[in-house]
Amino acid sequence: MMTTDTDSGSTPQSPTEPLYIDGKDHLDDVVTEHDVVLVDFFADWCGPCKMLEPVLDDLASATDATIAKVDVDQHQQLAGAYGVRGVPTLVLFADGEQVEQHTGALPADRLQTLVENYSE
């Protein structure tokens, strides 16, 4: 009889800081491996993106969600595939499916509520 130990570390833990995505396959892997993933499509030159950065850093360490960041200048095709027309655009995945998409910086409490609604 085979038994599996669910506490053996085989399931990836949510990172406590944002992951920087290096392409479509990487994003697909992250979305598949983690239950709740909030993807921040951002640009270095974007003021609201810079304001959102510490909020997302806090969210990564305070919740079970995985925060992923996609630089739209480096990954234009990936941004296009998600219909990103402005930055920041936040795309939320739950159980591998896209469930929400918001353009613009959202307040910290709204982001936390958004993530927690899918983390239960």
From TrEMBL:
Pfam families associated with the record: Thioredoxin
Keyword RNA-binding attached: no
The protein, known as: Thioredoxin
Ranges for region Disordered: 1-22
Keyword line: Disulfide bond, Electron transport, Plasmid, Redox-active center, Transport
Residue ranges of domain Thioredoxin in the record: 6-120
Any one GO MF annotation of this record: protein-disulfide reductase activity
One term under GO cellular component: cytoplasm
Comp. bias intervals (Polar residues): 1-16
Signal peptide (from-to): none
CDD domains: TRX_family
Organism expressing this protein natively: Natrialba magadii (strain ATCC 43099 / DSM 3394 / CCM 3739 / CIP 104546 / IAM 13178 / JCM 8861 / NBRC 102185 / NCIMB 2190 / MS3) (Natronobacterium magadii)
